[in-house]
Amino acid sequence: MNKLIQIVLLLGIFGSFLAADSSIKAMKVLGNVSDIGPTSKAWLSSGYQDVTLYPQTTIKINDKDTNELNVKAKKVRVKAITDGKNISFLIKWKDETKSIQDNYNTHGDGFVMQFPVDATDVTKLPYVGMGNKGRAVIVHFKKAIGLIYEIDGEVYTQVGENNQNIFADDLQKYIDEAVKKGEGDYQKVFISEGFHFMTQIKDGSTVGKMHMVYKNGYWKGTLSCPLKSDYLDLTHGAFPVSFALWDGVKKNRDGLKLLSSWIGVKVVGKSGGGKLINSLEVKPKGDEVNGEKIAFENCAACHKYGEVNIAPDFMAPNLSNIGGYSTKEYLMESIVNPNAVVVPDYNTNAHKNFFWYDIDDKGVRTSTMPSYNWLDKKSRDDLVAFLKSLKVQTE
Ligand code: HEC
Predict the structure, then answer these.
(1) Cβ < 6 A, ligand 1 pocket
(2) For domain 288-388, which CATH number applies: 2.60.40.420, 3.40.1360.10, 1.10.10.10, 3.40.50.300?
(3) What is the pLDDT of residues 285-336, one digit of tens each?
(4) Which residues contact 19 (CB under 8 A, 6 or more apart)?
């Protein structure tokens, strides 16, 4: 056989074992990257890696138009560089509309980078949607807001007697008040054990410098942070990161966003972390067609996914993009031990008839999903292969 064809075939076979989520290489650079913005020349020494973000379809919100705006995945480009003490990420994404949050009814474009506090065991990474009980994440969040809007991270909505904003009649007073207390530039860092358990870190112990710049239909956002801080240690050869985007014009907020899976970051020139990277890159083995059959028989009564729309609304998380933002390890754990990570209720008003979990008097949550640990190994593997394939197309 022609050598070239052989190589192409080999690459094809090899390629099919790799998921789309190849790892990001953090290149070592000279100089200091503790606070660099998108226009820094330091970025020239590193190449982009594609990362795909998927609509978090866990739950639809009570807003039909909004749901319909959020149907496609988005490819973004990411670079990383390190000076040995700090690491910086650059994320570039297309957005035809620059949205800045400048009053109560608008939403700003924004981005998040999250890191697991503990990533030593790839089978026990935090829930990618802002962590979960016992598996914390550090969340760096930046969004585009006008100079005068947020006060200490909270939207300044003091409500008067008639449910009117008390400043609605007196905008200048509101602006003055906001300027006095606000900071204009919205950038926060949280330690989070889930959507309902986010604590802003204000003591300066976990610093990160974020910037975002809009040009020619693209946003570029950066995060620079120390490799080691009180809550986070990124000094290993590799660690996971996850990205999220909110699109203001699509009214994205809270759980309504685009989300990547955990993506490996390999620090070039530093040993270790190979197991983590490998595990995050390699596709699950299994027969997707058989997995689909098993899912239809066992899961479709509670979960909607793809074209399968049998379950009542809000009965359980919608799995239509679960393969896009979940690792294979998380999917396996969800099947055999639903209590390990209990997905939060993003909107209890919407699904008040269906409790996703019970809470005991100590606050411990038990999932209402039964365990499928009785399935044989092959069936479990096939199911995971099928779940990993569940994701929408990229725009
Ligand atoms: C009785 C209803 C029910 C059945 C049947 C059920 N689930 Fe679930 N599932 C839930 C609920 C409720 C949750 C959210 C609470 C939690 O995290 O356990 C959930 C969560 C999940 C999650 C995590 C979703 C996310 O957004 O992270 C996955 C994955 C999952 N289920 C897969 C399955 C698979 C695969 C099957 C079939 C083998 C199945 N489920 C059967 C109710 C069910």
Answers:
(1) 58, 295, 298-299, 301-303, 316-317, 322, 331, 334-335, 338, 341-343, 356-357, 367-369, 372, 383, 387
(2) 2.60.40.420
(3) 999 999 999 999 999 999 999 999 999 988 999 999 999 999 999 999 999 9
(4) 281, 282, 283, 388
